[in-house]
Amino acid sequence: MYIESTQLISIRDKQFEMFIPEEQILARVDEIATEINLAYAELRPLLIVVLNGAFLFAADLVRRLTVQPEVQFIRISTYGDQMISSETAQILLGMEIEVEDRDVIIVEDIVDTGYTTDFFREHLSQQSPKSVRLASLLFKPDNYRGTQAPDFIGFSIAPDFVVGYGMDYAQQGRELRGIYRLSAN
Ligand code: IMP
Fold it and tell me: How many domains does the chain have?
């Protein structure tokens, strides 16, 4: 487990340093919610939350929405316990969600290479949604090789590995209230 000080933590063999504190995350989630509330004012969007990493972002986002969203969950396997993206994807949960004619917002914790969301968008497009947009708390533009970048972005960050606020390193660190990045030391 880890020894926590406010600025530096250890998870397994790695050290992570404070990167985005909780207050800053929540202030940004407020702003994204406002954007979505404006863009979907007359609509009832279907939020599809990509588990596991997006569960805290989704919880905070949903509670700030006034557009009466429907919320569904999906799980896509791409990563395992590695720090690099793998190139195969598979839907493990949520195959039954009906999106035909719906205004879908995919909710992601982080878009890195973009492979996962491209794969999922392709899957959705076969079921004729009315519209599909993507909200991601974090975006790593330097790693991105996908075709449609997120429409709603919390923070664009350098391609460092991060944990906390729902995101894990080898299934640990999800409960951290802030976001920490891999430390060079
Ligand atoms: P992509 O397919 O490369 O865009 O990766 C998307 C998924 O990889 C995200 O939903 C995360 O679950 C995971 N991921 C990518 N970068 C990180 C990171 O820095 N920390 C934790 N998970 C990450």
Answer: 1
Does residue 13 belong to any structural domain of this protein? no
Model confidence over 104-120: pLDDT tens digits?
A: 999 999 999 999 999 99
- Ligand 1 pocket (Cβ < 6 Å) reads 50, 53, 78-79, 85, 108-116, 161-162, 167
Tens of pLDDT, residue by residue over 130-157, are 999 999 999 999 999 999 999 999 999 9
Residue 4 inside a domain? The answer is no
Q: Which of 29, 46, 40 is nearest to 179 (CA)?
A: 29
DSSP code of 32? H
Q: Is the pTM of this model over 0.85?
A: yes
